[in-house]
Amino acid sequence: MDLHSQIVITFNALQPSVLIAYAGNNIYVSKGQTIDLNGSVSGGSGNYTYSWAPTTRLSSSTVINPTLIVGNTTVYTLTVTDSHGCLASDEVTISAGSTSVSNVSVDNIVVFPNPTKDCAVVELPASESDYTLTLLTFDGKSLWNKQITASESSVKQTIDLGSMASGMYLLLIRNRDNVWEHKIVKN
């Protein structure tokens, strides 16, 4: 072998894809309800370990989908570690409310009848800004949305629940300055 010869060694390093943690969709549920947190992970080198924080009210803080008994509104953080020690985190907000419903009047917003068999009426006071009404399932799925233009007089809006399954729904009412939540029960 010549003293000035070269040996070339080529290495192909395989890197895993980027580690991504997903803590699930933000949801609104009733206090005391039991739900599963829907975490997931992709990428990284596999052999994951999981850590949820805070750990209060969780069945386990070291599994990807722990069961939670809902208390107060809380932000949960999922941290995932892969076999190479790479970390990824994500947060989910579990918003908690009460399960009581009635004909509701808050800040001169009235929702009636409640419970209802087919339609609910929302009466909104005069406002200098537009209202947005959104009807949601309690797992956060949007079912209906309506923009109502600002008015100098009160406005009534009918929500048709006739084709929807019996159960409890969440009505979010927003304007420039406020957000109101009303529960509507469909019999």
Question: Key terms for this structure?
Answer:
187 residues, mainly beta, Immunoglobulin-like, 2 domains, four-stranded mixed β-sheet, four-stranded antiparallel β-sheet
Second CATH tier, the architecture of the largest domain? Sandwich
Note poorly predicted spans: 100-105
Main beta sheet: strand number and arrangement?
4 strands, mixed
**Mean of the pLDDT scores?**
85
State Rg.
Answer: 25 Å
In order across it, which strands form the biggest sheet? 2-8-7-5
Determine the CATH topology of the largest domain.
Immunoglobulin-like
- CATH class of the largest domain reads Mainly Beta
| Overall outline | elongated
Question: How far apart, in Å, are the first and last alpha carbons?
Answer: 90 Å
Helix content: under 10%
Strand proportion, as a percent range, falls in over 45%
What is the domain total for the residues? 2
Overall number of strands: 16
Structural class: mainly beta
Report the total helices: 0
> H/E element string?
EEEEEEEEEEEEEEEE
